[in-house]
Design brief:
Number of domains: 1
Strand order of the largest sheet: 5-4-3-2-1-9-8-7-6
Active site: 49, 60
Helix content: 40-55%
Strand content: 5-15%
Low-confidence stretches: none
Pathway: Amino-acid biosynthesis; L-tryptophan biosynthesis; L-tryptophan from chorismate: step 5/5
Oligomer: single chain
CATH superfamily: Aldolase class I
Number of helices: 12
Enzyme class: lyase
Protein name: Tryptophan synthase alpha chain
Largest sheet: 9 strands, parallel
Number of strands: 9
Radius of gyration: 17 Å
CATH architecture: Alpha-Beta Barrel
Function: The alpha subunit is responsible for the aldol cleavage of indoleglycerol phosphate to indole and glyceraldehyde 3-phosphate.
CATH class: Alpha Beta
CATH topology: TIM Barrel
């Protein structure tokens, strides 16, 4: 059983929902990331989603796209991001870390080399937005079959996913399914809770894999509404936006972190009230 699977098993026993915050590795300065990961755990994170900086993040809205730009400007590479997970693991061996990125850097590194690097660092799951499930080949099974550090392959489902593609995602996915709550990119609005409830119910009829919902969650109310129909909620843009104008100014960074942690407290309290 992977760390992610263990977390969901424990949450199910406790009748609780997972809170999964997203931050971009190296944003706005590399030295902030590991400490922020620890603080997210202290404020209720069950799993951390760590973005891998990329110059063309097609699934992401302007907030996270700009975060990637800031991280790249700060010289944060894919390899640097994975090293941050290794640093985090020195003092936290229980909180799962999911890395989210795009295929281009991984193609350059090589799939097996990237998987080895992630396993050595203590990564628990990989989400490559532009890897179609029907083209994943043996990669998902290679991840879960590792004896040193078994990892999960996470895939996305959305309101426009066909039944055929959904079946492929369920076949190849493990850990949890990431359901995109609306049409559009990260940070979009126009959340339709009833539509999400219907889609998640359909997915759950076809698999026992936990389903977590992301995109469009902005506050405790939306987190509670979606947490009531899913196994967890994923929040990114609402946290990342706080680093838009900090630069390297220590006071601005401290204030931004305080806002992120206050939002985490709001979200944790909301979903614990379901």
């Amino acid at each position: 059983m992977t760390r992610i699977e263990s977390v969901f098993a424990k949450l199910k026993q406790q009748n609780k929902k997972a809170l999964i915050p997203y931050i971009m590795a190296g944003d706005p300065v590399p030295q902030l990331t590991v400490e922020l990961m620890h603080q997210l755990v202290a404020h209720g994170a069950d799993i951390i989603e760590l973005g891998l900086p990329f110059s063309d993040p097609m699934a992401d809205g302007s907030v996270i796209a700009h975060a990637a730009e800031r991280a790249l400007a700060a010289k944060t590479s894919t390899r640097d991001a994975i090293k941050m997970v290794a640093q985090f693991r020195k003092t936290n061996t229980h909180t799962p870390v999911l890395v989210m990125g795009y295929l281009n850097p991984i193609e350059i590194i090589g799939y097996d080399a990237f998987a080895d690097m992630c396993a050595d660092a203590g990564v628990d799951a990989i989400l490559m937005v532009d890897l179609p499930p029907h083209e994943a080949g043996e990669f998902p099974r290679k991840l879960t079959a590792r004896t040193d550090n078994p990892m999960n392959q996470i895939f996305l489902l959305s309101p426009t996913t066909t039944a055929e593609r959904r079946a492929k995602v369920i076949e190849n996915c493990s850990g949890f399914i990431y359901y995109v709550s609306l049409k559009g990119v990260t940070g979009s609005s126009a959340l339709d809770v009833d539509a999400v409830r219907e889609q998640v119910a359909t997915i759950k009829q076809e698999t026992s894999i936990p389903v977590c919902v992301g995109f469009g969650i902005r506050d405790g109310d939306s987190a509670k509404a979606l947490g009531a129909v899913a196994d967890g909620v994923i929040v990114g843009s609402e946290l990342v936006k706080n680093f838009a104008d900090t630069g390297e100014d220590p006071e601005k960074l401290q204030l931004a972190v305080a806002k992120v942690l206050a939002k985490m407290d709001e979200l944790r309290t909301a979903i614990d009230g379901i």
